[in-house]
Amino acid sequence: MADGKAGGTKGGQALLFLTDEQLRKGIEAMFFAYRGFTADPDRILEKYGYGRAHHRAIHFISRAPGTNVNNLLGILGVTKQSLNRVLRALIEDGLVESRVGVQDKRERHLYLSESGKALEAELSEAQRARMRVAYREAGHEAVAGFRRVLEAMMDPDQAAYFNAMATKEDKG
Amino acid sequence: MADGKAGGTKGGQALLFLTDEQLRKGIEAMFFAYRGFTADPDRILEKYGYGRAHHRAIHFISRAPGTNVNNLLGILGVTKQSLNRVLRALIEDGLVESRVGVQDKRERHLYLSESGKALEAELSEAQRARMRVAYREAGHEAVAGFRRVLEAMMDPDQAAYFNAMATKEDKG
DNA sequence: ACTTTAAGTCAGTGTTGTTGACATTCCAAG
DNA sequence: CTTGGAATGTCAACAACACTGACTTAAAGT
């Protein structure tokens, strides 16, 4: 494994010759790209005194309105205490509403208020704008490849959440 | 922009119809994939009492041995003070050597020691292993697309650093 | 009644980022 | 040669956000 070569060991698939250098380039690309990916929302969040944790909460509440805290915990992969701090701030500021469950009164169902939706839209549009440019520059087939590699890179549990959130509009 | 449609406005390139939903899926894929991407190194780092910041420093020192602090600062995009804390720990633990510059005695040139190289190899191999699996699952063309999209997603400055680190081995 | 589950809270700790103040070194203008 | 500014790097203090662990409250399940 220290000889710098990997892959191409005649599996059923097409051969893939991957040098350590090529893999390393992919790793660095992830690092730099993720920074670009979060840069625009970070600037917006700063205006409101929020951080990435708040963004993530807002994003997934927007994505699955009425979700409960436990579910959000699973998606975000953080501790209860950590999420709670963020959620408390968002609720106090009136961006998120927490409603007691009807069937199960222990649960709290989370929704974005109007102002919450407004911030979500602002953050989301900034991030989509960058994504759109990147997709356009890279082209149609590149996008499909991009998605395939990312999905293969996820942990199985996370991939399950990811695919569970697929909608009818999204095929491939 | 609130109508959920974007792209396909007959530019010179092939048409790209991108719904907000598709873009959002890409955003979420980045989020989940990055978590998988960092999961393995995180586990290793924990054993040694280090964090991601240490990993990044080790990675780029390994990549460009003899680099000075200022250069590293530009690559990592953090403040001098933040990097310094990390560097100090690595130097105290004997993983990194800091040598006073010959031409300019203000500069400190950074190198990995033998134990530093060993940790770098451990971290790097874990991350490459995941990358390798993802690349294999996704296939050859997907990898090219993956790289193209990531590069387009970077900030221009970061993309410059990224491309500057390209080696003769890496074409495309 | 007893246990489990969902949510929230309090206290303490660690990593990582920030700003501010400071030391050293280089270089160029006077 | 000296002096002042710019560049390089260091030290100290603080804020954000993650973590663990222990605990409370309320509701559901058995």
From TrEMBL, chains A, B:
Keyword Transcription among record annotations: yes
An MF annotation (GO) of this entry: DNA binding
Domain HTH marR-type span(s) in chain numbering: 20-155
Gene3D superfamilies membership: Winged helix-like DNA-binding domain superfamily/Winged helix DNA-binding domain (1.10.10.10)
Keyword Cell division among UniProt keywords: no
GO biological process: response to stress
Pfam families noted in UniProt: MarR_2
InterPro entries assigned: HTH_MarR-typ, MarR/SlyA-like, Tscrpt_reg_MarR-type_CS, WH-like_DNA-bd_sf, WH_DNA-bd_sf
Signal peptide as annotated in the record: none
SUPFAM superfamilies in the cross-refs: Winged helix' DNA-binding domain
Keyword field: DNA-binding, Transcription, Transcription regulation
Protein name: DNA-binding transcriptional regulator, MarR family
